[in-house]
Amino acid sequence: METVVHRDALARFGHALSDGTRTRILLSLRSGPGYPSELADQVGVSRQILSNHLACLRGCGLVVAVPEGRRSRYELADPRIGRALDDLIGLVLAVDPNCCPAADSEECC
């Protein structure tokens, strides 16, 4: 049975994945927690841009900040998020491994 809560949860997840930077952050965090400076280097963005995206992901309820003294460690809010990302990747590759070969293509998937 579909509820408003279900729709909102999926919309938040979709919003998070709609941006390449946020997707890279989530994919990075599925392998374990990270610190902002490390995540910025891994994702290839400035700390300010990373901070903005982390705030969005926190607002979506997908990541949490765990205080550690004067800094914070970021991790997925629930381990099922990492498994959901793995399942989505596997599904897309199973359906069409060549999906969206050109980012500038108007026809995608």
From TrEMBL:
One Pfam family per UniProt: HTH_5
NCBIfam families xref list: HTH_metalloreg
Organism: Rhodococcus olei
InterPro entries: ArsR-like_HTH, HTH_ArsR_DNA-bd_dom, HTH_Metal-responsive_Reg, WH-like_DNA-bd_sf, WH_DNA-bd_sf
Domain of life according to the entry: Bacteria
Domain HTH arsR-type: start-end pairs: 1-96
Name of the molecule in the record: Winged helix-turn-helix domain-containing protein
